[in-house]
Amino acid sequence: MIRYMIALTLALTTWMHAAQEAEAKGSFSGRPGWNLRLNDDTTDQLAAQLKQDFRRCQANPKIYRYDCYRRSYRTGAQSLRGSSEYAPIAKALALVERRIGAVVEANLDPSQPKLNEALFVNHRAVKPEALPQIKQATIAAMEEATTLLLRTPDNTQQKHFQRIAAVIQSNKVLLRSALLELPRTLVRVAQLWSLPQLPLRG
User: Which one of 38, 111, 148, 175 has the lowest number of neighbouring Cβ atoms within 10 Å?
Assistant: First the structure.
């Protein structure tokens, strides 16, 4: 029994030491980083995770897309919780999450089932007619978050904040470009009108 307790204590000590080293190096594991310092690895991993989440959300049906975005920003913010150096980034991500969450909550469509994406991960549907309003609110939140991150005067923080601001900006551009998309029929009509007109016979 004593040997078992000693072995268990050693195992726990080793695990805690490894966890502390990983966090100090900036390992992005999705858990709060209480002592997390600004570093390239964590910033790059956070950026990559957000990009991956945004691509996944964009592939979802539109009525589920925005609750998916909300969850992505929330996950990113929570992964930095407790880190004073990453606090401005966490604040910016949380701002977007709250704004999307509020407009989604106000326009939920209870007639639609939740979209199950993974274990314990599901997205709520919004009313189709509210999509333009939700999209505009989401873009506005992204613009505010980007502005907050780019205002930092500290040169040591600047590149990290700019990195995440660029990811948010790419998400915003993706949504904004969707606003400008024309239906295929209109595009086809525009193409026909651009063709040279043949002279009339007679």
Answer: 111
